[in-house]
Amino acid sequence: MRNAQVFHERWDQWPMLGWLNAFAERGLVHFNGRELRQMSV
Fold first, then answer.
1. What's the CA gap between 15 and 21, in Å, rounded?
2. Range 11-32 average pLDDT
3. Whole-number mean pLDDT of the chain?
4. Which residues neighbour 16 within 8 Å (Cβ) at sequence distance 6 or greater?
5. pTM for this prediction
6. Distance between CA 27 and CA 24 in Å, rounded?
7. Within a 10 A sphere around the Cβ of 22, how many other Cβ atoms?
8. Is the dihedral of CA 24, 28, 32, 35 positive or negative?
9. DSSP assignment of 29-41, as one string?
């Protein structure tokens, strides 16, 4: 998560979109293409 956020801050695009979307579908993170945050456990 942190690495993806650092990448986005540096390059203004999200890396590993397939993984981020898969995590979001499973409810592990909130990702809407603009923001990424880990869901509380």
1. 11
2. 96
3. 94
4. 4
5. 0.83
6. 5
7. 13
8. negative
9. EEE-SS-EEEPP-
Residue whose structure tokens are 């909130």:
30
Q: Are strands 36-38 and 29-31 parallel, antiparallel or unpaired?
A: antiparallel
Q: Which residue has the higher pLDDT, 41 or 9?
A: 9
Contact present, 29 and 38 (Cβ < 8 Å)? yes
Rounded (5°) CA angle 14-40-28 = 45
Cβ contacts of residue 21 below 8 Å, gap of 6+?
31
Tokens of 12: 């203004």
